[in-house]
């Protein structure tokens, strides 16, 4: 699987999420979704490289996704959760 394009997509998404401690979890979840989608496409006979490309394209605009995720990964709420458990 072309992990470079998945990594690039996750990096682009996380650029728009201000609460950096959540970047690892966000990237892990996005990676899992993308790998699952690509694997499903490969089971249907799509070549690996093309399957990864299609999975990334199907996720949509990384900037838009990042901005939406930023709303639910607020720095203020994130730090409060870390400080007060």
State the gist of this model:
The protein is an all-alpha fold. It has helices at residues 3-14, 23-43, 48-59, 62-72, 75-84.
Order of helices and strands: HHHHH
Q: Kindly state the number of beta strands.
A: 0
What would you report as the Rg, rounded to the nearest angstrom? 15 Å
Q: What average pLDDT do the residues reach?
A: 90
Show unreliable segments: none
Mass-distribution shape: elongated
> In percent, how much strand structure appears in the residues?
under 5%
Helix/sheet category: mainly alpha
Number of helices: 5
Describe the structure.
The protein has 85 residues and is mainly alpha-helical. It has five helices and no strands. It has helices at 3-14, 23-43, 48-59, 62-72, 75-84. The longest helix has 21 residues, at 23-43. The mean pLDDT is 90.
Key terms for this structure?
78% helix, 85 residues, mainly alpha
Tell me the layout of helices and strands.
Elements: H1 3-14, H2 23-43, H3 48-59, H4 62-72, H5 75-84
Helix pairs in contact: 1-2, 1-4, 2-3
